[in-house]
Amino acid sequence: MGLPDGYQLRVGTKSDRTLLLDFMYKTYQEFFLEQKKFSHLADTVAQYFSQTTPLWWIEFQKKPVGCLWMGSGVDQITGQRYSHIFIVYVSLEHRRKGIGSFLMNQAEIWAKSQGNFQLGLQVFNENQPAVNFYEKIGFKTQSLLMIKPFN
């Protein structure tokens, strides 16, 4: 599975921290327009971005248009480690060109290279196109995060 013409894969480096944060903001802003503050995402990047959490970029004309950031987690049923996708994002104007599929394939390759038995991620209910995409490529719901807001 390759990238469309003009697109390139680049391995992220520690100097990409600000760019990663920008892409995380884009992801959240797309579905939570009413929320203006996402400063907590900087804490997430500060806490988890390291040599053991690889990052890949898809670039078009030397400009990042997609990213994949991974880490690991522990399956709460089996207790086994698995590869976890912290973020997979493709800019709106570059979607439906196979870039998301390419990134998910990259995730699977990395997960297997780590000796992990599965790949996991969290997706917001509001992001139905992503839910449909993940189901199409073989993901199944294992648990639901439920929140009860207090007034």
UniProtKB/TrEMBL annotation:
CDD domains: NAT_SF. SUPFAM superfamilies: Acyl-CoA N-acyltransferases (Nat). Keywords: Acyltransferase, Transferase. Pfam families: Acetyltransf_1. It comes from the Bacteria. Residues 7-151 form the N-acetyltransferase domain. One of its GO terms (molecular function) is acyltransferase activity, transferring groups other than amino-acyl groups. This is GNAT family N-acetyltransferase. It comes from Aphanothece hegewaldii CCALA 016. The lineage of its organism: Bacteria, Bacillati, Cyanobacteriota, Cyanophyceae, Oscillatoriophycideae.
